[in-house]
Amino acid sequence: MRVFWLIAATALLFATCAQAAAQTCSDPVTCWDQPRCPEPQQRQATIGGKRIHGYVLPTHGKPLKFAKVAVYSSSGQAKYVGETDKDGGFTTGLLPEDNYRLVVIGWGSTLVRLSSELDEKYGGFGGFYWVSLMDNECVGIGYAGN
Fold it and tell me: In total, how many domains does the chain have?
């Protein structure tokens, strides 16, 4: 039953994303790779860790509550389907190092790369990374060390 729910939720999320993209772009497939953020360095994120923690704050810091979230691996496989909480936050399960497409209904999509090199950069002490999803599909990165 749980597998069925995950498949159904993924299909619904993808269909909704494709429909939203089609409303603003003539070709929804190519639209995934055309973020609107005017600052090129804020169109994607590279973070350490083994999970994607995020906060969706698209409207002047106001959280996007209970929005559908999906994370797809570089091979296109759904790795996480869920929703933001009342504060606009979400956390995936454990993920291997890879490039992930993060899709949030009502916000947009971006690329998030999980890199073990960043964990090693700080002496292997780890820490806590997160992404902040802001206006115009811009992405900020946060880090708190141990």
Answer: 1
User: CATH number, domain at 29?
Assistant: 2.60.40.10
Q: How far apart, in whole angstroms, are the C-alpha atoms of residue 32 and residue 120? A: 31
State pLDDT tens for residues 99-122: 999 999 999 999 999 998 887 776
Q: What is the dihedral of CA 119, 43, 132, 145, to 10 degrees?
A: 20
Q: List the structure tokens of 34.
A: 């055309």
| Whole-prediction pTM | 0.73
- Cα(141)–Cα(66) distance, integer angstroms: 21
**Domain ranges, residue 70:** 2-144
Query: pLDDT tens across 12-34, in order?
Result: 444 444 444 333 444 444 444 55
